[in-house]
Amino acid sequence: MNDHLTARLQWLTEPITQRWRGSLLQLGWRLWLKELRGCLPAWLSLQDIPEHRYRWPLTAPVVKPAGEARQVLLLARDAVLVQTLQLPPAAARNLATVVGYELDRFTPFDAAQLYFVARQERRTPTHVHVTLVAILRERLDPILNECAALGLHPHAVDVDAGEGTPMGIDLLPAPLRPRQRPQGKGLQRSLPWLCGALLIAAMLLWLNDRQRVLEAMQHSVREQKAQVAEVQALRQQLLTTRGAAQYLIRRKAAQPPLSALLNELTACLPSDTWIDQLEVNDGADVSFSGQSAKASALITRIKGCHSLENAQFEGVIQPDAQTGKDQFSLRAHLHQEAADAPTTDTP
Prior knowledge:
Helices cover 42% and strands 21% of the residues. It is built from 8 helices and 11 strands. It has helices at 2-20, 24-39, 95-101, 103-106, 137-149, 185-254, 258-268, 298-302; strands at residues 51-55, 70-75, 81-87, 114-123, 128-136, 156-159, 273-280, 285-292, 308-313, 318-319, 326-334. β10 and β11 form a beta hairpin.
């Protein structure tokens, strides 16, 4: 059952294998793998399984090599039949089957008498160039039996293309092919993990870059917010200063000038009264002191001053023995007017 399944799978994959062999894609793949092996560290173990070749006929028993190794039996070129064929392009879809049907035309034997390999070399719009390598079963089977007796159980049977270089084919019957990791299997198994690791690394790098950009944007936003807050604080400070300045300007404009206040006091106070001290504070309070012949009548006289209001004595009126007048001290409040109120100079 297993042999039948293996043969079935081989029959299904043979067209793909024939198209792959000798193609530009295969050449590019080999070059890429070579470059990849040179770039990767040794601990990844991506090197292929070592291959040991044994020329037929064997002259001594074979000692199994230590470790995992691929054993290949190398036949002489004159031990096989090698032909170059030109087939229609449609034959490349299932090359092994097509050649198997036509073996009796290409060789003196039919398919039941031969082990053969048909390898596609190159393809043109009109033809497919194929290399046919065949050997009689009655000749290869005794060779394999003798190899087994000498301790050699080959993983493949290849043909010497000249100067010890194998042709790169396998004439070993499918039922006799041992189950082992084929050449390059370590690389094939490691490549998905390597690709996955590279993909995860790329995703992490992308996320790290996005995070870095986000942090830079957040830092820029914080700086801009701080600048806006600073501008708003300066604006508020400017508005407060401006409001205070305007308030002082209005207060100053609402108060009468000091010269006008002195002129008005001169007109309101009687001629027998003089002022020793006059003080006007920021609260628009006016305090003055002096001497007068009739100090008790000063409140009535000050009411005639339009610039002063709420006049009242501070302390008591005391007579001065030297001048014979009364010493007084008064406090009043400046009358506040609107800054835009009309004055006596306004026409």
